[in-house]
Each structure stands twice: as C-alpha cells, then as structure tokens.
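Researcher: For the record, we're logging two predictions in this thread. I'll number them. Prediction 1 follows.
Model: Prediction 1, sequence and structure:
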Amino acid sequence: MLRPIFLFAMFVWLFALEGVGETLVVRLPGRESADDPRLAYFDELLDLALGKTEPSDGPYRIEKSRLAMLTHGRGSEFLKRGGRIDVIYTMTSIEREREFLPVRIPLLKGLLGHRIFIIRKQDEARFAAIGKLEELRKFKAGQGHRWPDVEILEANGIAVEVGRSYGGLFEMLERGRFDFFPRGVTEAQGEAALHAEQGLVVEQTLMLVYPTAMYFFVNRENTSLAGRIERGLRQALADGSFDRVFDKYNASLLERARMHTRRVFHLQNPILPAETPLGEANLWYHVPD
C-alpha cells in the first residue's frame, strides 16, 4: 500500500506538471480605426518576442480585444486595473511610466521622434520656403487628445490644435483647422496614401527630431510578462530577427522619407524619462549621411 506521504508528493508533482502546459493568453487592444495602418508591425514584434521565449516560458496565445487602441481611453484604463487588456504599445513619457510598466526596448528604434509632416497639397510651396524653426512656429500643428507630442511641441513654441480621434485629425487638416500633422517617418507615407483623395500629401523638405521611444507597456504588477517580452526582444535583437521584421515594415518607408535630404529642427523633450536607454546604441536608428 502506498504511504500517504508518497501520495501527497505524487499529487504535488502532477499538479506542477499541469501548470507547465498552461497557455499564456496576452490580450491586446483592437484598432482605433479600421484604416489605421500602424499596428501590424507591433503585433508581429510582440509575437516574435513571445515566440523566442516559448521554449523556456511555455506556450502563449495573442488575442485582440474589442476595445479600441485609445492611449488614454478604455484600453489604458483596463490595463491599469489589470483586466481585459495585458499589453499596449505607445510613446513613453514620465506620466506613462508612472502609470504602467515599460519594456524599455524602443520598438521603432527612436524613429517615432523623427517627424515629417502631412499637409494639404496646396501648401507645399509654403512649407518648402521654411528655413528656420522660428518660421515653422507661425504654423499650427495637429495632434491627438492627450498624445505626449502635444506637450513636446508646445514646450518648443509650436501651437497645437488637438483632435478627439485619430481619424478625425485628417478631416481637421483638410478643413484647415491646423496646417500640418507631424507624423513619425514610418507612419506618414501610409497615412497620406490613405487620405490622398482629401488632398493630403507628405511634405518633402522638413523634419522635426526629438528623443523619444515607443515601448510595450504592461500593468505595473505584471513583472513576469514584462520580463518575458524584454527577454524575447533582446534575443531577437541578438539573432537579427528583430531587424528583419523592422526592415519588412519600415525599410521602404525610410527610403521614401529621404531623411538625409531634409532640413532638421531639433526639439527638446521635457517629458522623456531619465531611465530611457539612450546609451545603448544598438537600440536606436542612426540616420545615414
């Protein structure tokens, strides 16, 4: 007859084995707009990171919530409370790093802070004539409600008109509510193409540059998920698979942006957290001469 202590040990062993095979479900917000081209890249990077760690950390499954990707909307609130949303990807700021736990690997290699403009086609000559930041300050920029860029632009003397929704900003630009829509160099081309019928184009001569990063963020208590994502991203950086995904989505956009030919205006970022890993050169994109 089996002794009670042996039965207890077998029970504990079987219970532990049961836990090993559990699937980690990672829930993401849905798209704010059906036409929003920005998010597929970040979805693939998250899948890459979790896949790199699957042998050691177990299986996973990524699910999309019906909640829209609203940076300071319902998605963020559910992330903060620890329910229904597990990961968001957004631009860092001191406030956001207080609210959420960042995975400090810049997903766009800092290129979110390299801003070119979507403008009305009839304004191309006006912008091409700008030679100094002081001249750009005569124009009004458009940004989304509670986007960190609002504070950055205003701190650098650029007036900002705020829109309530991502999609609505293009309509506001078309109607002349503001003059230019600063977008990351990996965002502007696709967005302008989607709104070409509204007479919107990518401005070809200017670029704003300020230090910032797009990160994955998780609930502040979910240190295990943050650690798994960081380990996976660092493995992907080391073996080159991060760069392959980056190039797949961004290489042609960067070529078309022709950053090296533009007049660059450097801005200060007063909301950049001190912990931003600016010293890790391999994490950042370096514009070729």
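Researcher: Logged. Prediction 2.
Model: Prediction 2, sequence and structure:
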Amino acid sequence: MNDLAPVVITLTPAQGALLREALGKRVNKLRIEPQATASGWLYAARGGKEFWILKHHDPKSYLAAMRKHLPHIDPHIAKFRLRVGNSRIHRFGVYAEERIPARRDVIEYTGEHVNPAEGYRRTKTVKRAYVFGLNAFWGVDPLVGGSGAEFINHSCEPNLRWRVCDGHVYCRSLRAIEVGEELTIDYHFPKQAPKVRCRCGSPNCRGTINVVKKKPQTRGTSAMPKSQRP
C-alpha cells in the first residue's frame, strides 16, 4: 500500500477558473490523493505529452449522483424550448416545444469532465452509461451537471448531429424540426464494442447502434438500403 500523505495545493485564480469550467464548482484548494497502485498520481495521455491528476475514486458519491439523476432539461443551456417525455424508442426522450431551424445548435451536452481511467471506473459495472468521449484525454459525464441532452435517443436517421468545438459538445440540427417531434442523434457506437440492438424504427435502420462496415458495391448495380426494423 502507498502510505504517502495527500498533498493540498492552493490554486491560482486561473487554475480555479479551469476547474470551475470542468467541474462546475468553485475550487480554491486541490487535494491530491495518492493512488494505492503503481500507477502513481498522474494519468498520462497522448504518448505522455499531457498529464492530469487522477480523480479520487468515490463510488458512494457517484451512486448518489446516479440516484439523483432525473429526466430534465436545463433551460439555461438549451437554445430552444425542449421537454423530456416518454419515448417509443427507449424510456425517455427529448421533444421540441418550438420549431427548430436547420443548422442550429439546439443544446450543449454538458457534465463533469473525467479522464478515460475515471470514465471506465464509473461505467464498467452500470447498465446505462452516458459518458461522451470528447477526445483521447477527456470524457463528459452528464450524471454530474448534465443539461438533459443525455436523454436524446439514438436513431439511424437522426435529426441532430454531434458538433465538438473548443472542448464543448453540441447537438446541432440537421434539418428543420417541428413542434412535438422527438430529437434523435446517431450515437455511432464503435463497431468493435459490444453490439447494442437499435430500436429506432426508421425505414433504413441498420439494426444496431454500433457503426457497421458497409458492404462493397457490385459494379453495375445500385446499393439500396434494406429495411431492418428491430
């Protein structure tokens, strides 16, 4: 066991501002807990060019956050009037309460920023995980500080797309969305991940939320999409 005492660092105003952006909390002092494994205190990414302090693992705190995570839309983050309601696709969904034009940011996908090691620790034993992989270094976990965008369901023919810009994740409209229409987005689960059956019901449903490898077209024929209703 590592018997080193924790280190407490007093943050500069600039450092505090970075943590406030990442966590949504005001932090004046940072307590660094020593890890009980050989991994040490730091998590390295991008070939060791970037480092970040591993979060202290607190399963009880995260379980409490999961219990408090209720379907809602944060009106301060949504750009249009939205509501959460029952969905024919899966459990809850997000619906437009006003017409949304095409090519507009509808809502930001917000949450606590966690590194991949912490993201894996949080999601490896849960049935429903919402962590969005922002890049090789960060994931966004909406179970803490989510805007409600995490309740947008998957569809193989979505009306939204992901837009990542300056460390933020936005859900942007692909076309005009009418009042009462459910918002959907293509999750693009990687094809090497465990297969998840799709229930979007769209005419061109690919049958799985995972991205599938397209079959090569035969010369002289046209590739017509095959209806695969789950």
